[in-house]
Design a protein that fits this description.
Elements: H1 2-19, E1 33-37, E2 40-43, E3 49-51, H2 60-72, H3 75-78, H4 96-116, H5 122-125
Antiparallel strand pairs: 1-2, 2-3
């Protein structure tokens, strides 16, 4: 009997929070959000469809995630590195374009050396 009471109270609490007027994240109109399906909410005024919680449009986990994203993308964290400072590449990490240019120069030198040398053909030796 006690377990049934706890479950009924939980369901009443969830239904009460679901039916409360919620504010649209786009147009900020209160009371215009309507639950379309589990986790889908639509604003009647601006016709915005977005994913939220199953019973409420904004969950505690969603708020925590939004706060973490906002902190990581804030200007304070992104501007830690001075923009005037040039990027220094360590010697062991040569840029790929430089390596390709060096390899092409070596191949050109080898081809030029082969053209200038007088190497007898196998056909002419006979």
């Amino acid at each position: 009997m006690a377990l049934a009471m706890v479950l009924r109270r939980r369901v009443l609490d969830i239904e009460k929070r679901r039916n409360e007027p919620h504010r649209c994240p786009s147009c900020a109109t209160k009371g215009s959000l309507k639950r379309e399906a589990a986790g889908l909410w639509r604003c009647k005024k601006c016709d915005l469809l977005f994913a939220g919680g199953a019973f409420v449009p904004y969950t505690d986990a969603g708020r925590a995630a939004r706060r973490a994203i906002d902190q990581r993308t804030s200007d304070e964290l992104l501007s830690l590195r001075d923009e005037t400072e040039e990027e220094v590449i360590p010697e062991f990490m040569t840029p790929i374009e430089e390596t390709i240019r060096e390899r092409d120069a070596e191949l050109d030198a080898i081809e030029a050396a082969m053209e200038t040398e007088d190497i007898p053909d196998e056909d002419s030796a006979e």
